[in-house]
DNA sequence: GTCTATAAGATGATAGAC
DNA sequence: GTCTATCATCTTATAGAC
């Protein structure tokens, strides 16, 4: 990492090497609060407080609350990209797909409390009129594409449908796990899903 | 049905035979608005307007907004009960399970816009602190139980896990259908699910 | 029972000092 | 760049007339 100026997504102040930039602090704070409470129940006052930033100062970094939510979405997209890239180390497509599914099992306890971080966000924003014209901006788009790639490598012609099937199993399991406040539901469904992955030629 | 006084859930004004009671109008209005916008983005002013009732009058029927949301949940529970009972006409367990799955396909277009009426409600309320101590109050509880009953009739020992698997497929398909704004995703996943139902001995 | 008026508080957003 | 003070609006909820 050099000290030279780097291109960053959107307007961003000079990055501090010592600590997270205040902008990033605000995005992180908003991301966790939105996950725990949802977008609309989360106020800018709460976001600012958790980020240790004065309320009015939020508007120096984000023109509106919507802009802050957009920044959270970008942050989630970056995390997804990193995570998927990390699975590349696995040797076989099956191992990579199981690693993906295991990601949710690792956070099963949290999922039982607040739901899937991606699923609940997508569900809430999906009702927003602003979101109505953004079909391929889904947080799941890169994940479905990545699953489809693995399945094609397995020689499956129906890779697209199977990709949706795999993600639907995970998301459905996460939703029911949250609804029943039982992490075991997600764990057991993932076990079933793993057997299903093995059954794919 | 007699004219005698009947026990009803909660305080309820005299039921008018000619038209829906104002209370019911408010519940219906709240239910549709909550489905379209979510609980927290829906204001009492909107609910009152759609129900053609003055804003302040809402508080005659419901002490707080939470009480109105509770009434919506009760209404949903009643709808679920009715719907499941309607499937009883089908001869075989498989036919009954397919009828259940078909229920979502019938509203696939709406699901692509606003998500599953039950799934999105559960997802949003699941983040609510008030809901934290209500594991078996899930809107999905009666549905899972009903599916389990059908599967037991098929002689399946693993009926509980399979019940969650079936509902997870549907809910996952609905969530992805909404996320991608594509009803076809839910339709295709249901097709796969129907074959899966047939494969159950 | 039904409605109007309004209180009380929260929230997104702005102006301007430092 | 950072912070304080504050506005304007929205939203839940109440009081009280009819």
Walk me through what this model shows:
The structure is a homodimer of 201-residue chains. Chain A has helices at residues 22-37, 44-50, 58-61, 65-86, 93-106, 108-114, 117-125, 141-153, 159-179, 183-199. With 201 residues, the first copy, chain A, is an all-alpha fold. Chain A has 2 domains: 1-63, Arc Repressor Mutant, subunit A (Orthogonal Bundle); 74-201, Tetracycline Repressor, domain 2, CATH 1.10.357. Chain A binds a DNA duplex (18 and 18 nucleotides) through residues 13, 22, 43-45, 53-60, 63-65.
Q: How far apart lie the N and C ends of chain A?
A: 43 Å
Structural class based on helices, strands and sheet pairing of chain A: mainly alpha
CATH superfamily of the largest domain in chain A: Tetracycline Repressor, domain 2
How many domain modules of chain A?
A: 2
**Quaternary assembly:** homodimer
Q: Can you name the CATH architecture of the largest domain in chain A?
A: Orthogonal Bundle
- What fraction strand of chain A? under 5%
- Mean pLDDT rating of chain A: 90
Might you state the CATH topology name of the largest domain in chain A?
A: Tetracycline Repressor, domain 2
CATH class of the largest domain in chain A: Mainly Alpha
Coarse morphology of chain A: elongated
Largest interface: A-B, 45 and 45 residues
Query: How many helices of chain A in DSSP terms?
Result: 10
> Helical residue percent of chain A?
55-70%
Radius of gyration of chain A: 19 Å
The strand count of chain A comes to 0
**Element order, helices and strands of chain A?**
HHHHHHHHHH
């Amino acid at each position: 990492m050099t000290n030279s100026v780097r291109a960053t997504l959107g307007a961003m102040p000079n990055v501090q090497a010592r600590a997270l930039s205040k902008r990033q602090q605000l995005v992180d704070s908003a991301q966790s609060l939105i996950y725990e409470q949802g977008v609309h129940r989360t106020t800018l006052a709460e976001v600012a407080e958790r980020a240790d930033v004065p309320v009015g100062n939020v508007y120096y970094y984000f023109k509106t609350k919507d802009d802050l939510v957009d920044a959270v979405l970008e942050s989630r997209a970056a995390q997804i990209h990193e995570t998927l890239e990390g699975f590349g180390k696995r040797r076989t497509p099956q191992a990579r797909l199981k690693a993906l599914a295991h990601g949710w099992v690792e956070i099963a306890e949290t999922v039982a409390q607040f739901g899937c971080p991606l699923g609940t966000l997508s569900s809430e924003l999906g009702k927003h009129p602003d979101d109505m014209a953004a079909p391929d901006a889904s947080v799941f788009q890169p994940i479905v594409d990545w699953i489809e790639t693995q399945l094609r490598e397995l020689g499956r012609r129906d890779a697209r449908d199977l990709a949706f099937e795999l993600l639907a199993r995970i998301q459905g399991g996460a939703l029911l796990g949250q609804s029943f406040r039982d992490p075991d539901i997600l764990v057991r469904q993932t076990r079933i899903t793993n057997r299903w992955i093995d059954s794919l030629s």
